[in-house]
């Protein structure tokens, strides 16, 4: 019952195979150095390949990209069918029209319970503040709604 953003983690293996999966377990770890984390089930088919890649990208989806989130969450299909992308600085695929993308060095992994936690060092990122995020809560997709005019910045409330 915790609302999260929705991401698609993408990578490319040394032999050019594209990897992509929907993940809502993304979050910030550190600003200096810039670190983020996400987790993947130990039984996931893509785990072996993701353990081997040096870089991956985290693509933060917009409210208009629910179908893409569902496509990359499905099993036993070509998740990349009909999907446009470009290769980022490190060679990881970047999806178009996302709210943000983080190109990460695959810094470390931790096995905890039935998941592997991936910690990535952000080497390059882009964002589009004008794009509404896709939100996931209680097994359903949502979009954002602004609740007021205040924003939290640098540990203090700023009135706008």
Residue runs with pLDDT of under 50 for 5 or more positions: 156-160
CATH class: Mainly Beta
Q: For the residues shown, what is the average pLDDT?
A: 91
* Distance N to C terminus: 30 Å
Could you give the order of the helices and strands?
Answer: EEEEEHEHEEEEEEEE
What is the percentage of strand-forming residues?
over 45%
Tell me roughly what share of residues is in helical segments.
under 10%
Pfam family, one: Flavin_Reduct
InterPro entries: Flavin_Rdtase-like_dom, NADH-dep_flavin_reductase, Split_barrel_FMN-bd
Family: Belongs to the non-flavoprotein flavin reductase family.
Protein name: Flavin reductase family protein
Structural account:
This protein is mainly beta. It has one domain: Roll (Pnp Oxidase, Chain A). The protein is about 10% helix and about 50% strand. The protein has two helices and 14 strands; from the N terminus they run βββββαβαββββββββ. The strands form four sheets. It has a seven-stranded antiparallel beta sheet with strand order 3-2-6-9-10-5-4. Strands 1-11-12 form a three-stranded antiparallel beta sheet, with no helix packed on it. The longest helix has 8 residues. The chain is globular and about 50 Å long. The two termini are about 30 Å apart. The relative contact order is 0.23.
């Amino acid at each position: 019952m915790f609302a999260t953003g929705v991401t698609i983690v993408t990578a490319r293996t040394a032999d050019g195979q594209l990897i992509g999966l929907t993940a809502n377990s993304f979050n910030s770890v550190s600003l200096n150095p810039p670190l983020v984390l996400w987790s993947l089930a130990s039984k996931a088919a893509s785990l072996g390949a993701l353990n081997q890649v040096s870089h991956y990208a985290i693509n933060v989806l917009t409210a208009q990209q629910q179908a893409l989130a569902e496509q990359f969450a499905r099993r036993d299909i070509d998740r990349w069918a009909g999907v446009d992308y470009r290769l980022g600085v490190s060679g990881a695929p970047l999806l178009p029209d996302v709210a943000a993308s983080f190109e990460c060095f695959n810094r470390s992994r931790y096995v905890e319970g039935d998941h592997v936690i991936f910690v990535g060092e952000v080497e390059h990122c882009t964002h589009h503040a004008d794009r509404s995020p896709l939100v996931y809560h209680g097994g359903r997709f949502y979009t954002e709604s602004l609740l007021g005019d205040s924003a939290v910045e640098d540990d203090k409330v700023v009135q706008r």
